[in-house]
Design goal:
The chain has 297 residues and is α+β, with helices and mostly antiparallel strands. The chain has ten helices and eight strands.
């Protein structure tokens, strides 16, 4: 089960600055509601050129709400130049840390801030500062994650696996079609990170993070089998009474990927069913803080 700080609980249960700034100077939107995470951030500048108001609207988990809430507090009173220096690590630090699996929420906040500032410069007909521009190469279609976001997360946090990238950026957490490209980026960055490994010539370089030890196959197989049984028998049986059905696609760590079929496929209430009932059923019967993610084919 993930451990959250008191700051995360505070900003989740008492979020600040929820809504949309009226006559905003800049609005940024990132993510996709269809895939489970979306954030809109808006801000307004005061006469002194500093951010006098900032608000957010989000569709996501508690960490996403907390990250967005604290970010709006952090940027108030800053100039755009100062706000552009706020990194996702700063957001997580302001919350006294986030679980590794939830770091992507702070990344989404940073990206929404960048998008809002870019929107401001474009509205004003001004040149967008170079540090806000990216190559714009979309790697993960499901979660709208660009190559630069993935690369920066790998280099800054010394990520080594696709699972690490998904935890930090959400990229690769949907249909998995982008996994080969993510692995290619990992390989490219890995070569550069290897050059930074400690050596007599580079005593101050940081070592690569050690690879996580492999889990015991028999135990993991039993765990997946239990989740599969719950999904394809108990949960599926209940959905079939209303003409729907469900398939287990994959279990990866605490993420359970499922596909809704029959009457449930494309249902406007599918996310409510997944998060409000299916996810709760799995958590209750396994004792794990599982996250259920819908895969749409």
């Amino acid at each position: 089960m993930w451990k959250y700080s008191e700051r995360v609980y505070d900003h989740f249960f008492n979020p600040r600055n929820v809504g949309l700034v009226e006559n905003a100077d800049g609005v940024g939107e990132v993510g996709s509601m269809a895939c489970g995470d979306a954030l809109r951030l808006s801000f307004k500048l005061g006469p002194d050129g500093k951010i006098c108001d900032a608000k957010f609207q989000t569709f996501g988990c508690g960490s996403a709400i907390a990250s967005s809430s604290v970010l709006t507090e952090m940027i108030k009173g800053l100039t755009l130049e100062e706000a552009s220096k706020v990194k996702n690590e700063d957001i997580a630090r302001e919350l006294d840390g986030l679980p590794r699996e939830k770091m992507h929420c702070s990344v989404m906040g940073r990206e929404a801030l960048e998008a809002a500032m870019i929107d401001y410069y474009k509205r004003q007909g001004k040149q967008v500062p170079c540090e806000l521009l990216s190559q714009g190469v979309l790697v993960c279609q499901c979660y709208q994650v660009e190559r630069d976001t993935i690369r920066n997360a790998i280099m800054q946090n010394r990520l080594r696996t696709i699972e690490d990238v998904t935890h930090w950026t959400k990229a690769g957490g949907g249909c998995r079609n982008c996994h080969p490209e993510i692995q290619h980026i990992l390989d490219e960055c890995g070569q550069k990170l290897q050059l930074e490994a400690p050596s007599p010539d580079r005593p101050g370089a940081l070592p690569l993070a050690p690879a996580a030890p492999p889990s015991a196959p028999p135990v993991e197989q039993q765990r997946v089998a239990r989740i599969r049984e719950l999904v394809e028998q108990d949960i599926a049986r209940a959905l079939r009474t209303d003409g729907g059905d469900i398939e287990l696609v994959e279990v990866r760590g605490r993420d359970v990927y499922v596909r809704l079929v029959g009457a449930c496929a494309g249902c406007p209430a599918s996310q409510a069913t997944i998060k409000g009932w299916i996810e709760q059923q799995l958590r209750e019967h396994t004792g794990e803080e599982l996250e259920v993610i819908e895969v749409r084919s």
